């Protein structure tokens, strides 16, 4: 299963700036010498110059002894202050060399007893009386956050390294780019960096910067090993990546599709992580049209779609079948198949004539099942003529994969998702969901002119919004084994003077401060510009789990990606390991804390955090959407026994008030 982004009308990308790092030789004799990291870095530089036309003056390179810890940090900071780099210009940071793990210092909320680092040239050596520790992942996250805040989030990070090393020297035949270092890390490491990375302006709702500041392409999963090819003296991942890029073109592929186009690499599964992995490479925007494709296989005469109920497939859904992913653009489908029975959690049996299907095939959804219909109530008012014309046009057009619109009468208004009415010559939208109205929000704070096209955009977005908001499973096993905490955070930097040392080993950044705020599934807060929040997902089960987290905004129908697992060519690292936790907004999970705001004229707002849990990796990248009321809304359609095959959802209501209830 994979997501393919189809592109049209692509313009030339803006000027690209790059920081390219390759380290074969390390200062410490305890760290193995590599043979292909510098060669990889130079190959990336040649690709940027030759294939993309990037000027040499726009690329900084650090090879071997040049790549000290201080120089790497300073070089990333230099990108932030470079006056030549304009907002949203593409920035590439490439690193080939050793990755590593070291013991987490006291006071760091790392989620485990180890942290991951990039191994700089001087790692493990003494400098100014202290051992150089490499660059921890949280330090990199802060540096990338600062970079994206200044230059935009069109930042691509490529790491050809791993963190699955050992304390003993590697056999030279293995050529693994990972080590485990025996270094005592001071608790105040990088406090000079982190204290300046305080959040001064956090976007409303739940925008986290750990995953939105950049897209990461990594050579392998967390427990896997990034390997070098001893014959070609190159990294397997970088070779495959550059060969694929030269084959398809950087301006024709998204990050996610690029990873999925890579050849199979033995024992390593390259990963793609970030909110913007569906964007075109080196661009700050998504393609003009996108759709999700699913693999289809033939099993004992049955046609099996590699997607099920967790993906949103329902009984009655229809799919066009293509021989390969590239043929979707302009080719006629081989056939059309239907989900005639209720899907399984992660797969669906399709029916129809599949005689033309070969060994490999891919499915594009062309029709939704009846469960996905949007129910709208519209009063019989002559002032709403434009609404009826918009509904008629939307129903008649019936674009690929589009959900059906049903108009309900007054006596059935309780079944409707939305009520459309007229007020002072404008179109208004009344919220009918009792889970929202019970808290006092019964109307969206937007009005539209009586324009058919604008009304259609809202209707289309509402169909997508309410389907993904309400779909779930009735089982409760996963909901019972994953514990959710939502709490207010404190900014530790505010408590420590610039010159002061934190004797308690406090984790610079944010940490929980106060009680658990979820009460019977609801978080009820009074909006405070200075208040910041975070959450923790704790897996109390003995098996790894996958989680995707979204924020649903009932006021504007937007769905924001809060957390999603990475995409991979093969196996995806599960974010919820057995008996471990995933923190969001603080700690090892990274990202900015959450903050809340109310729109002008609003005294209350209600949103939902929805958590999808599953025992297998699920690509839910088609769930997020922008608000149809925003100017940049896309004009196209977004298209006791060990348990297996489970998926469930958890819904948390977030009530935001201007004043405390009396």
From TrEMBL:
A matching Pfam family: Peptidase_C14
Protein's UniProt keywords contain Metal-binding: no
Keyword terms: Apoptosis, Hydrolase, Protease, Thiol protease
Top-level taxon of the source organism: Eukaryota
Biased composition (Acidic residues): 494-505
Transmembrane spans: none
Residue span(s) of domain Peptidase C14 caspase: 17-260
GO cellular component: cytoplasm
Annotated family: Belongs to the peptidase C14B family.
Name of the protein: Peptidase C14 caspase domain-containing protein
Species assigned in the record: Serendipita vermifera MAFF 305830
Lineage start: Eukaryota, Fungi, Dikarya, Basidiomycota, Agaricomycotina
């Amino acid at each position: 299963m994979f997501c393919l982004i189809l592109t049209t009308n692509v313009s030339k990308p803006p000027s690209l700036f790059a920081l390219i790092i390759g380290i074969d030789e390390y200062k410490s004799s305890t760290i193995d010498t590599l043979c292909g990291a510098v060669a990889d870095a130079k190959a990336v530089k040649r690709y940027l110059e030759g294939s993309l036309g990037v000027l040499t003056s726009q690329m900084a390179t650090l090879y071997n002894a040049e790549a000290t810890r201080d120089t790497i940090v300073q070089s990333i900071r230099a990108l932030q202050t470079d006056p030549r780099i304009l907002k949203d210009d593409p920035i590439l940071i490439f690193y080939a060399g050793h990755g590593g793990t070291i013991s987490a210092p006291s006071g760091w909320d790392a989620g485990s007893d180890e942290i991951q680092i990039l191994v700089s040239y001087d790692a493990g050596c003494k400098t100014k009386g202290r051992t150089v520790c490499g660059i921890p992942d949280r330090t990199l996250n802060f540096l990338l956050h600062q970079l994206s805040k200044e230059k935009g989030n069109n930042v691509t990070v490529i790491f050809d390294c791993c963190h699955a090393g050992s304390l003993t020297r590697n056999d030279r035949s293995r050529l693994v780019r990972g080590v485990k270092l025996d270094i005592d890390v001071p608790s105040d490491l990088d406090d000079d960096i982190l204290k300046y990375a305080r959040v001064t302006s956090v976007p409303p709702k739940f925008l986290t910067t750990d995953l939105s500041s950049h897209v990461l392409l990594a050579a392998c999963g967390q427990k896997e090993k990034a390997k070098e090819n001893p014959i070609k003296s190159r990294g397997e991942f970088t070779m495959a990546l550059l060969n694929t890029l030269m084959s398809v073109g950087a301006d024709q592929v998204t990050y996610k599709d690029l990873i999925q186009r890579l050849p199979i690499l033995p024992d390593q599964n390259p990963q793609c992580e970030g909110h913007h992995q569906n964007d075109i490479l080196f661009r700050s925007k998504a393609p003009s049209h996108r759709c999700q494709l699913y693999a289809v296989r033939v099993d004992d005469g049955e046609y099996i779609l590699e997607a099920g109920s967790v993906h949103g497939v329902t009984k009655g859904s229809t799919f066009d079948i293509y021989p390969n992913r590239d043929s979707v653009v302009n080719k006629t489908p081989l056939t059309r198949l239907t989900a005639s029975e209720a899907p399984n959690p992660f797969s669906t049996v399709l029916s129809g004539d599949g005689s033309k299907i070969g060994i490999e095939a891919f499915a594009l959804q062309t029709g939704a099942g009846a469960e996905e219909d949007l129910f709208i109530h519209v009063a019989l008012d002559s002032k709403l003529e434009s609404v009826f014309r918009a509904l008629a046009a939307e129903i008649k057009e019936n674009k690929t994969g589009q959900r059906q619109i049903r108009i309900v009468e007054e006596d059935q208004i309780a079944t409707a998702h939305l009520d459309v009415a007229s007020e002072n010559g404008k179109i208004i939208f009344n919220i009918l969901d009792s889970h929202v109205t019970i808290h006092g929000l019964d109307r969206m704070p937007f009005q539209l002119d009586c324009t058919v096209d604008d009304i259609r955009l809202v209707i289309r977005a509402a169909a997508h919004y309410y389907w993904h908001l309400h779909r779930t499973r009735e089982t409760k096993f996963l909901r019972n084994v994953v514990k959710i905490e939502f709490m207010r955070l404190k900014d530790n930097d505010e408590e420590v003077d610039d010159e002061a040392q934190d004797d308690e080993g406090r984790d610079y950044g944010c940490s929980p401060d106060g009680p658990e705020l979820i009460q019977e599934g609801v978080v009820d807060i009074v909006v405070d510009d200075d208040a910041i929040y975070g959450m923790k997902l704790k897996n109390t089960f003995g098996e790894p789990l996958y989680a995707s987290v979204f924020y649903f905004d009932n006021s504007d129908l937007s769905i924001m990606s809060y957390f999603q697992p990475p995409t991979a060519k093969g196996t995806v690292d599960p974010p919820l390991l057995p008996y471990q936790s995933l923190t969001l907004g603080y700690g090892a999970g990274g990202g900015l804390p959450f903050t809340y705001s109310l729109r002008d004229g609003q005294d209350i707002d209600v949103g939902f955090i929805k958590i999808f849990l599953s025992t297998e990796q699920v690509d839910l990248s088609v769930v997020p959407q922008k608000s149809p009321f925003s100017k940049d809304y896309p004009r196209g359609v977004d298209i006791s026994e060990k348990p297996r095959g489970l998926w469930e959802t958890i819904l948390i209501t977030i009530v935001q008030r201007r004043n405390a209830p009396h």
